[in-house]
Amino acid sequence: MANQNIENKLKLLPDCPGCYLMKDLNGKVIYVGKSKNLKNRVRSYFKSKQVGRRAELVRDINDFEIIVVSSDKEAFLLEITLIKKYQPYYNVQLKNGGGYPFIEITNERDPEVKLTSIIKKDKGYYFGPYPNVYAAQATLKFIQKMWPLRRCSGKLGRPCLYYSMGQCLGSCFKEVSSDRYDHQIKQIKCFLNGDITKAKTELIKKMQIASDNLEFERASEYRDQLSYIEQTVEKQKIMLNDKLQRDIFNFYVSQGWISIQILFIRQSKLMRRETKIFNLTDIDKAKDEFESFIVQFYNAKNRLFPNEILVPKGVNASSLAAVLKVRVKIPSRGQKKALLDMAYENSKIKLDEKIRLLELNNLKTKGAQEEIFNALGLPYGSRIESFDHSHIQGTDPVSALVVFIDGMPAKHEYRKFKLKGEIEHQNGADEVKNTREVVRRRYSRMLKEHLVLPNLILMDGGKIQVDACLDVLRNELNVNIPVAGMVKDNCHRTNHLIFGDPTVGEELRTISLDSKSQAFYLITRIQDEVHRFAITFHRNLHNKNSLASKLDEIKGIGPKSRNKLLKNFGSLKKIREASIEDLKGVGLTLTQAQSVKLVLENSQN
């Protein structure tokens, strides 16, 4: 149900192209979309029943704004700009680049051939990307031996080592003619475009000569080089008869997911493929999401535009071509249509596989969480939060929080707490005070920031922790979140839950779970995870404090010098092993460095 502000704004929407930005309660942009008709598109979010991820989006929308443009092409470009600017949670998120190397022939007076992972607009010749990095490296070495260009920095005034080895044309000490470079570059281009007959013949000849001369190690090098070249240039069968570089996109939609398959055709062969699978915000906008994905794909860093892009029927090819400035076609028959169909089949196989894995995984995650809520007599909730404390005889007390959503850890939402007041009164071991402090801090902040509260809190401990948590929630914060305690047996293994609400007269009772059930495994995992997170945080903090304390005992080392040592070395062992010069290098005087070295070495002895 839209709020009154949204209802009023819906009445004023224009029926023209543009972009819309959906915002949450804090004014943060959570989704960016485009439409030929803003009035119809934006109203559809609030005036029709929503399911799946789109329902989640609509539930989080507190406001929206629109930007009107004059054409669908402008809306396309603006949408991509806004997505890159705001990085909205509900939009498709793409990582930069694929990490594969390219072979580049540089555009210089004395060009060189090299591997690069960054494509620049420098008029150089780029070939690739190559999925097999080792094969690309071996191919580059072969090119440098077969058709050498420049290997050194040039203008040395003397021949370089590579010139002596026959792998440099000699720009280091003489001027090489442009015709010589052009001839070599023509041979390299021909080779990288797939014509490797001459190169293979020469390698086989050299391998045979080495074998006849009993130089088996060298013969094996030629054999490996030949194998790498075949992997890089001749691995795939011929897909098309021309030499155009093509990228082929197709997609498949099922159960609120979209699977996009990209085929990369280079030198008339299928060089590699990529699959991207995303949760759709709006199933009815699958083609719009697909088009947006393609534009984002080429706007990402280190993407090389092909000569031609192939897309399926129904996609707005003309708008894509205008935005990307690349030829975009929709084939209806022949080899290109067959490749498009192959991309579709691959995207379908990948998505069907993911959905089956999700279903199996849900039995162990979401299904296990449902068992826990059923055992406690609660309606299902997707979010569980769990606390644990750690300290050493009251010193350096800390608490840690882990979050599980639908049975899976949400590690980006984990939190650490340094406990405050208890240290001053040497009451760090007071579990009641520690629990009250961390619960108060956590949920008062969540209420203040209007964040989503958990459906269940699990305390790593027994009645003491549960009572303290419930008292703060009910009597101080007026929050009605269910709280249960995870109790261990004498061997420190997960045993059972305790649950109830003494603040309303309901006694805590024991909830036993089948030790072989998925619910029991999930409780054990949550308890182990929160304990691990708390103890790791405490150890790091304690070690840091111990190191700081030790450094404070050294005469002449004040807070600034201590912090320099902590920042640059991080441990007593590394400081002890550092030389006087290393210690001076971080800003200590000679006297300070000698004092640190002497004290730490004596303490070790």
UniProtKB/TrEMBL annotation:
Function of the protein: The UvrABC repair system catalyzes the recognition and processing of DNA lesions. UvrC both incises the 5' and 3' sides of the lesion. The N-terminal half is responsible for the 3' incision and the C-terminal half is responsible for the 5' incision.
Domain of life according to the entry: Bacteria
Location in or out of the cell: Cytoplasm
NCBIfam families per UniProt: uvrC
The UVR domain, residue ranges: 197-232
Record-linked HAMAP family: UvrC (MF_00203)
The GIY-YIG domain, residue ranges: 15-92
Keywords attached to this entry: Cytoplasm, DNA damage, DNA excision, DNA repair, Excision nuclease, Hydrolase, SOS response
Family: Belongs to the UvrC family.
Keyword Transferase: no
Cellular component terms per the entry's GO annotation: cytoplasm; excinuclease repair complex
One example of a Gene Ontology biological process annotation: nucleotide-excision repair
Segments forming domain UvrC family homology region profile: 248-473
Quaternary data: Interacts with UvrB in an incision complex.
Chief location: cytoplasm
GO molecular function: DNA binding; excinuclease ABC activity
Entry keyword annotation includes DNA repair: yes
The protein, known as: UvrABC system protein C
